[in-house]
Structure to design on (139 residues):
């Protein structure tokens, strides 16, 4: 029986679809939405801007809030409650580490280019392969 579901979310439509699926498929489960902000790396983009932020925790919370607002709206539409959590780090590794204590991970699949998958890896693929619990990927 699935009683605790982890739904990692970013700012994508596929993440929204994953939450919608989790809420409808597991109506009695406790659902936790996890937003992982990329840890500071040498790559440009979000992680780099976090690396130069004066207050990293505040910057991470600011990045997560729009995601959590959408997640709360989806949960409200389903007449459900959710819990939200924020982590900083490599998305796939953080999701895998965070999965302990849950029964299932439900996450969206991103259609990314081959070059992007080869360079950065695919979070959904890595989580599905390495998570200690079952994983459902929503397309």
């Amino acid at each position: 029986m699935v009683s605790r579901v982890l739904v990692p979310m970013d700012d994508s439509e596929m993440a929204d679809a994953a939450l919608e699926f989790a809420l409808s498929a597991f109506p009695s489960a406790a659902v936790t939405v996890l937003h992982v902000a990329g840890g500071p790396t040498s790559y440009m983009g979000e992680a780099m801007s976090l690396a130069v932020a004066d207050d990293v925790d505040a910057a991470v919370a600011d990045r997560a809030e729009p995601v959590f607002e959408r997640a709360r709206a989806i949960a409200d539409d389903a007449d459900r409650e959710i819990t939200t959590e924020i982590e900083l780090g490599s998305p796939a590794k953080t999701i895998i580490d965070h999965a302990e204590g849950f029964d299932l991970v439900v996450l969206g699949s991103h259609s990314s280019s081959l070059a992007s998958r080869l360079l950065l890896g695919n979070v959904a693929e890595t989580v599905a392969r390495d998570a200690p619990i079952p994983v459902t990927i929503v397309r």
